């Protein structure tokens, strides 16, 4: 495959990022895997996948420490996304959680800070905390994760809620529910969608039709599954791997040029929604 440039996505504040980034779910949980995890992230950065997604939840902060080691000496090359637990998302708790994340990451700012999912604290309080962090320079932008359309509409009614920069949700070939309403809602407002678990933790890779079409392009099923998401406007894809060679494989997905007939075949194998489906989560 040709080494085509990674397409870019622009956030509402004008910041441009690669549409293909790197996830870190389950990193930082085993010290024996740390070296491979760090090397994989570094390899991804070298290949242009400079957006790295993490969270205080992942490895109980361990993933943020892995990211911190991977970006040491090259902070300005990367765009860091992290997330606050909903039970930390009070006015004071959000600020304190962010400061702990910054320390683990070894940086003075998080580029995009997300509410991991909705909890008991009112959105007004969390948004106010996000705006406080922005004013202090500790974050550059904020967003949400696992918000359905009605959650997003409620968010926009909150003071400063319209400053939301992204919504990170479960989205892949087998989980296409957001295409009915949430994805077009975000697209029409210029709010990027971040697709987590883009290969359904590997569960879709044995699908015979996905395998058949991928083989026709001398590609892997994972590459085809990632290319499907990159074809969507305003979608950022964050596959996770702890293998540097797999990171390179992921990067090559941008060079796939799929025919309309094969997109139709994928639609037949993984049908798009025809009605509203409540937002799914992992």
TrEMBL record:
Family matches, as InterPro entries: AKR (IPR020471), NAD(P)_OxRdtase_dom_sf (IPR036812), NADP_OxRdtase_dom (IPR023210)
Gene3D superfamilies reported in the protein's UniProt record: NADP-dependent oxidoreductase domain
- Pfam families, per the entry: Aldo_ket_red
Q: Where is the NADP-dependent oxidoreductase domain?
A: 20-268
Superkingdom to which the source organism belongs: Bacteria
Q: What is this protein called?
A: Aldo/keto reductase
Q: Which organism is it from?
A: Rhizobium indigoferae
């Amino acid at each position: 495959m040709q080494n085509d440039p990674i397409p870019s996505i622009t956030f509402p504040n004008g910041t441009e990022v690669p549409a293909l980034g790197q996830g870190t779910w389950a990193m930082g949980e085993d010290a024996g895997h740390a070296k491979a995890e760090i090397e994989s992230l570094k390899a991804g950065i070298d290949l242009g996948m400079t957006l790295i997604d993490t969270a205080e939840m992942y490895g109980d902060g361990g993933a943020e420490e892995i990211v911190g080691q991977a970006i040491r000496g090259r902070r300005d090359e990367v765009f860091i996304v992290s997330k606050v637990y909903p039970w930390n998302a009070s006015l004071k708790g959000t600020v304190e959680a962010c400061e702990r994340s910054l320390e683990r990451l070894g940086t003075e700012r998080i580029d995009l800070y997300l509410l991991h999912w909705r909890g008991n604290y009112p959105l007004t309080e969390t948004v106010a905390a996000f705006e406080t962090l922005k004013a202090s320079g500790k974050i550059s932008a904020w967003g949400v994760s696992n918000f359905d359309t009605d959650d997003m509409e409620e968010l926009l009614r909150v003071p400063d809620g319209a400053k939301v920069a992204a919504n990170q949700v479960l989205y892949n070939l087998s989980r296409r529910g957001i295409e009915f309403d949430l994805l077009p809602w975000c697209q029409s407002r210029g709010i990027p969608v971040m697709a987590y678990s883009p290969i359904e933790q590997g569960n879709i890779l044995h699908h015979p039709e996905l395998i058949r079409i991928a083989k026709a392009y001398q590609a892997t099923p994972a590459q085809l599954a990632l290319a499907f998401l990159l074809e969507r406007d305003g979608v950022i894809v964050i596959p996770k791997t702890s293998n540097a060679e797999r990171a390179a494989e992921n990067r090559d997905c941008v060079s796939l040029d799929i025919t309309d007939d094969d997109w139709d075949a994928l639609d037949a194998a993984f049908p798009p929604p025809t009605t509203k489906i409540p937002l799914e989560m992992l």
